[in-house]
């Protein structure tokens, strides 16, 4: 709990109930902690170099969150590469082996398939065991060694019950598991796990034949690899089985504590996915972002683009690409009852594509996949017509598509309606379980689709352009149907941001806006502005008050902001073990986290004296915490 809940004047349980009452009074439906799996802390003597919610410490954090947070939003869960720790380039189906809690494999529950000696050595040798950072390169290698030992023991000593569960798991997930495991075997065959470097065109295209003859030949090759690397293939499937079993147990544990998980669907496809499903991608095109103020050449992500002609059949039913995407979202909604955050929602509705090997610039052939009727190669995919365009604007401008019919909006929203929302409904969830990352470029077609289907985007108060009164991220402009936060995993924590604003002109503009929005009835507005421009602690707190005082029904907070961890999780554009490595310190309960009761009290008061009077008793209860 927050540090003030340590006071003996009120019990922690009662404090949580009071906080929940305050959140309800402010109209908040969801209060969600954001923390990626690797950032979870470790229990004493269990720091292997990487966090996981499946660990003892992970379950303890769920207990900590119970009664306070409605959900924990995790990062992408896919398997990452040894050379890239970014969770946003992981696999779409296979889970990350680093999320396995090795400690549990040393117990009777798993037949002690991992020796305590091996486990203790991994903990002891962890180079970051005394700092709140992952040791990615270290644990990537050691985790594989430990899981290999566990696999070898599992084969000879697993109970009949576990073996049966393993067989059922393999059968139920064969549609994706067989391909992912085969890729692992071929990586051994060719000595590297990057398929474009393999020296066999056949192996590069096993699921991408150009003829019936090739299909038959490739089928024979698949059987040959499966026979040659049967153990490696089953090992890969075993690791996925272990993660799935642990994830399911953690999910049930969390639900018993009234905490749900929210997944994160990255826009990328991994090398493994690109190889397995390349026949479904648009040949010669990549997904990225157009040039902007921050990047004069645009962002060349290098991610493949789903071929529109493989998403839907002529009658509107799902083609193989659409079925793949729906299966992915069904899996995510099933495993995460809190919902799914979709990274870069623009990529599903109005993606910016560029030619492979080129820059994502208009002059090099780039354009919007569904909004370029004038483009010689993309025109056949266009939903917008020439008459719908403002031709005085270039193809990269948000407002270029100036008009759309209802039917066109439906066309832009086909993936959302027939794949994403349909998948959620089939797993017992609704559209409110979809969190849309719509920060940055938001074209008119994207805005129209989100409005048509009632999708909720994100409002980032740290992104406010203080000199623009109508800025959508400013408190007074944030509506109810959205997910609001002060910062994401890509931002500095709010305290660091506040420190950078002190004694600056832009900081003054932020202070003036905050006073206008939150202190409307104050008689000493000038004094408050002066304090906000000089006192970073007060500025950071007021930005948090702004968040809760806004009309947003759903509030998210990144763990660095909640626990006042003065460090950055991700620095965009950087790579290496230092990035994506920040963890919540093991002693997080001792940290001086945000004073949530006081922030909520101030948020109630910021709504005006009439609202505060209506909640006078609640304010008194918050003061007692």
**Low-confidence sequence ranges:** 1-9
Largest sheet: 8 strands, parallel
Proportion of helical residues: 40-55%
Strand arrangement within the widest β-sheet reads: 9-6-3-2-1-12-11-10
Structural class: alpha/beta
* Strand segment count: 12
How confident overall, as mean pLDDT? 96
Separation, N- and C-terminal Cα atoms:
11 Å
- State the shape: globular
Report the β-strand fraction as a percent range. 5-15%
Number of helices: 25
What value does the Rg take, in angstroms?
A: 26 Å
Please outline what is shown here.
The chain is an alpha/beta fold.
Can you tell me about this structure?
The chain has 625 residues and is α/β, with parallel strands linked by helices. It has a domain at 277-455. Helix content is 44%, strand content 9%. The chain has 25 helices and 12 strands. α2 (56-65) links the parallel β1 (30-34) and β2.
